[in-house]
Amino acid sequence: MNKQELARQYEPVLYFSRNGEGHEENFFPMSVDNFIADCRLYQGGEATPLQFPQGLTAKTLGQTPARVSKNYYLSYVADRFIGQTASWLKWFEDDGLVRFSVSEAPDEVEPEEAVSFGLMNEVAKSQQLPPDIITASIEQYRPYQDFSRYPPVYTYRVMNNRGFTVIQYWFFYAFNDWGTSHNGMNDHEGDWETVYVFLENSTPVYVAYAAHIGKPTTYPWSQVPTYQGSHPLVYVGCGSHASYIAPGIYKPVVGLTEYAQGNSQVHIGPGTQAPWGEPVDLSQQEWALNFAGNWGTTFRRFGSSAVSSGVQGPVGPAWQFDKWERPVWITGLG
How many domains does the chain have? Predict the structure, then answer.
């Protein structure tokens, strides 16, 4: 069995969710090729996008060495609004100083203290983008909700790590809108999420579900709900795309609610109306290995210091070191 066959044997089934007001998820796993085609590529600090004779493609992205690309970022829609709209100016002028003073070091305030001092709403707001960006992102992504034309896609990596064969499943979303669209925290262009399947002597033994910035939560295979005995079920947080083993309403941060009830009309994977398209082996993609920049706009305050990390586009899988190189360690298996 080759690596792609192995990945397909255990590929997850994703159950999406509505939020507490009944609103559906806006974004689903997509091909990075389509995302890149809809983006502009910037060098940090520059006002105009980089130009390529053949256009911006996954191949273009993979041709730039990491030592250079680490200073680049892809912009999905945000670059169209910077400094141009009333809501953008309001974001900076009306509450910018409060926003940034709260959000630059959110870890210094314990969640319980934030709630007791009434700061949690301020912290959450500090990681929300102007509504114009959210609306434009939803509209730009909308054609890709036609799964008959654009099948949902996952990327994967198969590796050996500390005695396990590890299948890393990476799902890419055009946007994380948990903050603005679903009363949570964080808005940012681009979103990489992952689920791990661990095999020992060709037998599945654990599944790890990654949610937010903490370590993934790991379960023995015997506790994992599956489709046809080999495809783990994943309940996806509405807007955040965090992964859970069971349907529920979660409190990943004190004072904030995340809906992962699996009650959306959309299910993706084996046995659903939206089976996975052709998976992509990350270890064979130059763009995955060479592009060390951000998969989404990065923002700066007054042209210099960074704003809250919650609004910055993430780096790709290969540049999330522990998740990429040390899955056994990061999931607590060794």
Answer: 1
